[in-house]
Write a structure and sequence with these properties.
By secondary structure, the chain is mainly α. 42% of the residues lie in helices and 8% in strands. The termini are far apart.
Length: 318
């Protein structure tokens, strides 16, 4: 039998390669299905390996192959989890300060809130006017256009007095004539010219200059008034300088009278308290007898004897 079967000595001849077939829509669909199945199987294998890494061994430890040294291995950079808020901080509100609008009314308004444009425009105009008032006026080349001192007609006037009091005067004339251009405090105006607080606070009646208090920085600012303006207002209020002097003398006499009356009342109260103290002291110094038990004399009469002074009182027993 072995002789009848011939053993091949050389490899059999290769078959010619078949022609490459064109892929049909059915083949493309099958290839896509196989690719999706392979991807799903790889995802299941990855999930199973991740879950197996949380399983502990006999020593309650994770396997070595599941331990990683990367600090961001457990977190996904594409979708990080938000940090939990600390409950000890209490309740608070988050604001985006870059979207706030300063309305200069003491509040910060957000963009979505309505802001009164007219108020903002008026505030900007007021700021512009204040800035213009604080600026020194220019000096013109034409001498007739420059303001002059009303005393010496020089153009070197004090701009502070001009801005605050509307008075055109230079510093030299201000120092030479203190009876007209010196500055008075509010206390001097009230004591010497008998003016009230509402009159002194009215900027239209009496303009004033505010300066820091020289006694202490935390005290209220000083209000300084120009002397000739205060005198003109005082003459207009009281009629004339003579009537102002009469009113001043009347108030001084009334104040002195009240002071003397108060002194007499305090002296009377002192005398009354002194008399009461003397009477009380005499009352306290009065002796009070402390009698002992009844005693009998040689005649059989009952009597009581004071232990402190020896005073004896006869007692009749019934």
């Amino acid at each position: 039998m072995s002789e009848s079967v011939e053993r091949p000595v050389t490899p059999p001849p290769r078959r010619p390669a078949p022609e490459i077939l064109q892929a049909t829509p059915e083949h493309v669909r099958q290839i896509e299905i196989n690719r999706l199945r392979a991807a799903k199987a790889a995802q299941r294998e990855k999930e199973s390996s991740a879950s197996s890494s949380n399983v502990t061994n006999l020593n309650k430890k994770r396997p070595m192959d599941s331990v990683t040294t990367s600090p961001t291995a457990g977190s996904s950079s594409s979708n990080p989890k938000p940090l939990k808020r600390d409950t000890r901080l209490g309740t608070y509100f988050e604001y985006d300060l870059s979207k706030m609008v300063n309305s200069k009314g003491g509040f910060l308004l957000e963009d979505n809130n309505e802001v009164h444009e007219e108020l903002i425009r008026k505030e900007k105009e007021r700021e512009r006017e204040r800035a213009m008032r604080n600026l020194d006026p220019p000096v013109y080349l034409d001498p007739t256009k420059n303001p002059r001192c009303q005393e010496c007609q020089t153009i070197d006037i004090d701009h502070t007095l001009r801005k605050v009091f509307g008075c055109l005067v230079c510093r030299k004339c201000q120092n030479d004539k203190p009876e007209r251009y010196s500055l008075l405090t509010k206390t001097e105006c009230k004591d010497d010219y008998l003016l009230t607080d509402p009159e002194l606070r009215d900027q239209e009646l009496l303009p004033h200059l505010l300066k820091a208090n020289p006694h202490k920085s935390t005290y209220a600012n000083m209000m300084l008034f120009l002397r000739y303006q205060v005198e003109e207002f005082a003459w207009k209020k009281w009629g004339s300088a003579e009537k102002l002097d009469e009113e001043y003398e009347r108030r001084t006499a009334e104040k002195k009278k009240k002071k003397n009356k108060k002194f007499e009342q305090s002296l009377k109260e002192l005398r009354r308290r002194t008399k009461e103290s003397v009477w009380q002291r005499r009352k306290d110094e009065e002796h009070k007898h402390a009698f002992g038990p009844l005693e009998r004399d040689e005649n059989g009469n009952s009597r009581e004897v004071c232990h402190s002074c020896g005073f004896v009182v006869d007692v009749e027993e019934l």
